[in-house]
Amino acid sequence: MQDELAQLTGFVYEIGLLKRYKRTGWLVAGVSDPESIADHSFRAAALASIVAVLEGADPERAALLSLFHDSQETRLTDIPYLAKAYVKRAPNEQVTAEQTRGLPPAVADMICGSVAEYEDKTSLEARCARDADKLECLVQAIEYREQGNQNIQLWIDSSLAALQTPSGKKLADEVLRTRSLDWLDRFFNGDDTTPLGE
User: Fold this and answer.
1) pLDDT tens digits for range 42-71
2) Whole-angstrom Cα distance, residue 172 to residue 121?
3) CA 78 to CA 80: how far, in whole Å?
4) Neighbours of 151 (CB within 10 A)
């Protein structure tokens, strides 16, 4: 048990690297201080639960899949899309199995199972989590564009093209229609309770 706790503690420290590692695609786009992988994973997990509820899926499961979808990047880093044509990388399931070796079996099974389900793409929760990954990228691209970054359209287009669920597509349409601080304008104008669709 002590060895499992030591391994678990090591995993907790390792997963913390995601707070330091930057999303490299944004560096390619010219964003000077891009979000971290952990920043991305947090909002993606929130979006996964939202999309799942709208799609009639299990929001907790979708959020869990999304939470661990990039956990392998502690060892692989965030390889830019351009590099993927030249770099052979280990499958995420393999990296996760190595990351979780020696952890308490229930913990390892939960993490490995979440990554395997996400990568399998067949469950509704996995499709919601995958859409959340693309929606988060879309939202982040809009925010960076509003901050003056001009080389963002490729990320917007690729995110939109990858969406699969009806709810993900509807959310994307709304993201494109609004500005990132419209919600704050509504708050200050006393109109922050307008139901969706009105």
Assistant:
1) 999 999 999 999 999 999 999 999 999 999
2) 20
3) 6
4) 13
